[in-house]
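Methods — Computational structure assignment.
A single polypeptide chain was analysed. Its primary sequence is given first, followed by the predicted tertiary structure written as structure tokens.
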Amino acid sequence: MAKQFLIYTNRQKDKGLAVTERIRSYLEKRGRKVLLKTEGADWSETADCMIVLGGDGTMLRAARETRERNVPMIGVNLGTLGYLTEIEPDHLEEALERLIKGDYERESRMMLHGRAYLKGHGAEKPGERKSEEGSEEENKLGGSRQEDWALNDIVIARSGPLRIIRFNIYVNGQFLNTYCADGMIVTTPTGSTGYNLSAGGPLVAPQAKLIILTPICPHTLNQRSIILSPEDVIEIEIPQGGDGGEQTVEASFDGGRGIPLCTGDRIRIMQSQKVAEFIRLNRVSFLEVLHGKLSD
């Protein structure tokens, strides 16, 4: 039974906070405590449930921003596609009543952690796995290392002129292949229905534990998606371009924050120690949801 709620609102989707106030009013009349949070705002109190107002992009940002709190979340679809959001505004009060009564199930989703090593500063051996948080001294190294998390995917794509990008891929320290493509997607099962799907990657049930590596528009016929175990450590190195010149790319986390990379830099990607907790009201299988989306 949920007693304290956090409402995470995308102001661009909820103009004038009309839906936010509708939810807050309903919950407070039922004796529940309600906290309000907008994108990027800090919060310190705990909650039994986070209600996210927006679309799939808002759900992804909410998962990243609140990963340390591990608050189970459910989305109200104010967007268009809504793979991650479950509640439609027309059924809002019915859903809120079930949340109050605790009539729901929880589902954990894996996340990815990516750490970029710029120009080889402070580099460990390829494939060496360390705590994703790193030491205090390591986190003070400024621009030499940058890190972030993703629920959907980490995409490495060009940030400079329109040209083919070369990637050296290592898995657990072992060289896998050099890819020539427009970019590279490293995705979770949750993200398999996103950019990965558009790039020809496989669809995976969101509860699965695995990592998918999908090249974007590969320039050879035999380079396709690779499915790896969640324990695998992926390292993507940016070598010189095909003409021997410097390459400039950007690693984007869930379509948001980007980390610029260039020749000599690399990014290590692995399963995060953090997970995203989803609340499920509907006992609908992934295949049923997928069938509905593909039939639209």
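Note: The chain has six helices and 16 strands.
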